[in-house]
Specification:
It contains two helices and eleven strands; from the N terminus they run H-E-E-E-E-E-E-H-E-E-E-E-E. It has an eight-stranded antiparallel β-barrel. A hairpin with a 3-residue loop joins strand 7 and strand 8. It is elongated, with a radius of gyration of 18 Å. It starts with a helix and ends with a strand.
Length: 188
């Protein structure tokens, strides 16, 4: 499809740039602080239809072994069968089922699969901007957020505290900061 035809249909394919993208999570620790971490190894595709956002779709795959909380012992525990079990479940996947809103302020509903357990989640997102890099590639910046109950995905390990409560909170906030590169225009 020519660029002129793509502009007429408003449909394009964007590849997530893993070097400029990150999935961050935040969870309560000991019920008194929030610990953050991120996954640095991800890829995915955004099929964007600017004329009819409902015809857009998103697919993301995250390598669980890329988890980083800035604490080697904690990262090892999170990679273990107590949590992500990276040897058995090397990836987290997200596949959209519905997109609505505008390119600037959108909502993506989809199936998030962690440890082989799929659950529907809703991401609230926004476009942060776009432009052309020094090498002529068209880029788009996006941010999306959601929260999940980790127990819904089989992440049930915890430890009771002597003072009451638990070591690890159940609610996990997730933020995706994504830079995507226009890959091609989709045939109409």
């Amino acid at each position: 499809m020519s660029a002129q035809t793509a502009e007429a249909t408003g449909r394009s394919i964007w590849k997530i740039d893993p070097d400029h993208s990150q999935v961050e999570f935040a969870v309560r620790h000991m019920m008194i602080t929030t610990v953050k971490g991120f996954f640095s190894d991800l890829d995915g595709t955004i099929q964007l239809d600017e004329d009819d956002l409902s015809r857009s779709s998103v697919q993301v795959e995250i390598r669980t072994a890329s988890i980083d909380t800035r604490n080697t012992d904690r990262d090892g525990h999170l990679r273990s069968p107590d949590f992500f079990d990276v040897d058995t479940h090397p990836t987290i996947q997200f596949r959209s089922t519905k997109v609505k809103g505008s390119k600037e302020d959108f909502q993506v509903t989809g199936e998030l699969t962690i440890r082989g357990t799929p659950r529907e989640v809703v991401l609230q997102g926004e476009t942060l901007g776009g432009g052309t890099d020094p090498w002529g590639n068209e880029r788009l910046g996006l941010r999306a957020e959601t929260s999940i109950d980790r127990k819904d995905f089989g992440l049930t390990w915890n430890q009771a505290l002597e003072t009451g409560g638990v070591l690890v909170g159940e609610e996990v906030g997730i933020t995706l900061d994504v830079q995507a590169v226009r890959a091609e225009d989709e045939d109409a």
